[in-house]
Input
Amino acid sequence: MYMSQSVALQTQKDARCLMPVLKRAVFDHDTALPDDWTQEDFAEFEKAVHSAQLDALALHYFGKQLPADFYAKCTKETLLCTGQMLQYEAELKRMTKMMSEAGIDMVVFKGGDLAYRCYPVSAMRRVSDLDILFRKEQIRDAMEILKKLGWTQDGEYQTEHHFCPLHKWGHLAIEPHFIVPGFPASVQDDLWKHTRLLPDGGRIFSPEVTFLLVMIHLEDSRWGYFSLLKFLLDFAYLLRKDPPDWQKLHELELQWGLPDSRCLLKAFSDFFPENLYPQEPAIDQKMVELFRYLTTRIDLYPEDDASITMHRSDILSKSWIFRTFRCFHPRNMRAKYKLPPHGVYGALIQAYGKDIASKFIKLTGYAAKQNINAEQMQYLDSLEQYRKLAHSRK
Output
């Protein structure tokens, strides 16, 4: 489901409202709110904080400066999030211990890693689940250990990146990965060489790979669908707490054909101080302009699948077909139509018939259903231009 224009506009409004205040707090250690703020200013600030799910961050930096009702709401949300993050931390310790004893490698990455590694308080980085990477040859054994620890699976499907999520107590979730999304298939094995072994036996990615992960995740999330501010803060705390070796990062980008991640920092120079990252080699200004445009005009991202699909330059390519039709694996079909893991072959054939027919109708209807205006077309053109520039670096 793509972002509605109302959500996109609210995301942009949140960023405009919060960025100046958060820049002073995160980089300048200035946590004083403006003296001339009116009641309306605080109301707008409160709405943006709640919308971006930054209640714990607002409480941490601004505390008693917040109006009483606002302070109470932030405190309540912070306590709830703190409880969840403490539960995740305890579960991570248990599973890391058992995986280590079984000789199984695991890497916690994305938000679950950043919350504990970089943020002053883990509750400041809200997560919906923990992304954990396992080696392909070990992941099924890892899943059995997780089930012994009380984690349950709702189905047996798998995507091109991970198995069906596991849940515990209704509010904790793990997404067991065997592939790191966004990185070329040719570098997946190399990624393990860029991990750090922790004292408890767990692993995390190097700051260079983590930096690239956040960059790729931002692109994959439709340029700020979840919250542009959340991504900017991930970069900010990583730069402060565990900064990358810029030479190593540059070499990895060139080796793996990935975009120059400094483009994001340069695009948001009103948030990231320029002394945090090197200016040489020269940063492609066109890439910077495209990045700023794509992330700050996400209200132009079309809401319908048809327009987006038909505008992709890789439509009907081998990789596109693989991604689109992976769902036809019997395991995934059974999970989608809630069929038993074995048997009922007649029902499975019917499910295939329904799915193939619906996908054929959807695909052939794409060409005739491109409900986009000139501005949205320009946005998609810019997106294609960025992709070509970003992934042509060698």
Remarks:
- The first strand starts at residue 106 and ends at 109.
